[in-house]
Write a structure and sequence with these properties.
With about 475 residues, the chain is of the alpha/beta class. It is built from 14 helices and 22 strands.
């Protein structure tokens, strides 16, 4: 008898399992893949960041090195080696999780998990007989799957999802990306840097839905300068494949004449959907909402006693770190502690160049909620380290309550934004003000000084702009 059986070993599942084991529980995990880590480590966050890193260095070697006085011959792409570099990143991380599970004495079962009812999880391996695990508690941490575009068949060869886009063995001449969200822009960046022409088709009239609108507008201009082409307010109605490529049919979202684009590869990146099929949830009586997400209360409990859910299968942002926090919180709640997730302070990052990072409320949200706020911005163009590195695109924006000065949101478009955002997250976690941030000494010369200056700008006293 286990205290907890976790179905899925993505970031939420394996982290929650480890925390539960640390708290003295007897824990088992069930994973359908051969390797642990879920979508994030196998076909998502980690491999995409490996290719983003490699492609960024490739572009720097081809364009930026000469400005620094570094003379090299024109770089060439070796896709076989680059894919090996990506796979090494995957293997290193997934083997690390396997080690951590063993270290924490967690039993790992490979196979498809199915809930037979409260306290019973059936595991069906690819080969061999199914077995039933008995447990006091079950955690559903099965993550999410690729959202399908009606009428478009993904073959992972010419019409690909994010999974197929990470496995291309040659640089396409023209890639059409359907969806201007995080996944589409990140993977579009990879292949554009390596030499592809990239056209992004987005149903909405702006990129990065949910991002602060000022950031999104300025970022779109930067991507355009890099070579991205955008067809906003447009929808893809067909993708006909042939030996010579893919003919993509596009129509205005509001109606109008269709046009056809010739592409070598079409990447469908319109989002993700919760992975809840085949888990036996209906027979077990677990309630789902209209988007097939598992309905849970504030303690991650479903309507069936002893069955819980976290991560992409429940409400909220589909982010690996959000799932991790929920996994830890659930384990602590099961141990009688006060597990908690502050959903108002979950950073989000787009790992393009420049990066986009945010935490807290956007300016659009504050206006919509009628919250009185003050704003301070500071451009990287005025930051000493950014000037020295010639990475001056972007800015930092701090939003604070007009009465209390408590920081309500921070948005960064610029170099290393994904790293810079976290001092703001820590500040907000403790209810800090822009004055607190402005009066904290920052080392010089660093990019982080731009964050301090943006905080100073809330009170209109930035020094360097």
């Amino acid at each position: 008898m286990y205290d907890l059986v976790v179905i899925g070993t993505g970031p939420g599942g394996y982290v929650g399992a480890i925390r539960a084991a640390q708290l003295g529980m007897k824990v088992a995990v069930v994973e359908k893949r051969a390797a642990h880590g879920g979508t994030c480590l196998n076909v998502g966050c980690i491999p995409s960041k490996a290719l983003l890193h490699a492609s960024e260095l490739f572009e720097e070697a081809g364009h930026a090195f000469k400005n620094m006085g570094i003379k090299v011959s024109a770089p060439k792409v070796d896709m076989k080696q680059m894919l090996k570099f990506k796979q090494d990143a995957i293997d290193g991380n997934t083997k690390g999780i396997e080690f951590l599970l063993k270290k924490n004495k967690i039993d790992a079962f490979h196979g498809t998990g199915k809930i037979l009812g409260a306290g019973k999880v059936q595991v069906t391996p690819e080969k061999g007989d199914a077995q039933v695990l008995e447990t006091k508690n079950i955690c559903i941490a099965t993550g999410s799957d690729v959202a399908q575009l009606p009428g478009i068949d993904i073959d992972e060869k010419q019409v690909v999802s994010s999974t197929g886009a990470l496995e291309l063995t040659k640089v396409p001449g023209h890639m059409v990306v359907v969806g201007a969200g995080v996944i589409g822009l990140e993977l579009g960046s990879v292949w554009r840097r390596l030499g592809a022409k990239v056209t992004v088709v987005e149903f909405l009239d702006h990129i990065l839905p949910g991002t602060d609108s000022e950031v999104a507008k300025k970022f779109r201009v930067m991507l355009g300068r890099q070579g991205f082409q955008f067809k906003l307010g447009s929808k893809v109605t067909g993708a006909k494949t042939s030996k010579s490529g893919v003919k993509v049919t596009i129509e205005p979202a509001k109606g109008g004449d269709a046009e056809t684009l010739d592409a070598d590869i079409v990447l469908v990146a319109i989002g993700r959907v919760p992975y809840t099929d085949g888990l036996g949830l209906e027979d077990a009586g677990v309630a789902l909402d209209e988007r097939k997400r598992v309905i849970v209360n504030d303690h991650f409990a479903t309507n069936v006693p002893g069955i819980f859910a976290i991560g992409d299968v429940v409400r909220g942002a589909m982010l690996a770190h959000k799932a991790e926090e929920e996994g830890v919180a659930l384990a602590e709640l099961l141990a009688g502690q006060a597990g908690h997730v502050n959903y108002g302070i979950i950073p989000g990052v787009v790992y393009t160049y420049p990066e986009v990072a945010s935490v807290g409320k956007t300016e659009d949200e504050l206006k919509g909620e009628g919250v009185a706020y003050t704003s301070g911005s500071f451009p990287f163009m005025a930051n000493g380290r950014a000037k020295a590195n010639q990475t001056t695109d972007g800015f930092v924006k701090v939003l604070a309550d007009a009465k209390t000065d408590q920081v309500l949101g921070v948005h960064i478009l610029g170099p290393q934004a994904g790293e810079l955002i976290h001092e703001c997250a820590v500040l907000m976690e403790f209810g800090g003000s822009s004055e607190d941030l402005a009066r904290t000494c920052h080392a010089h010369p660093t990019l982080s000084e731009a964050v301090k200056e943006a905080a100073l700008a809330v009170d209109k006293r930035a020094i360097h702009s």
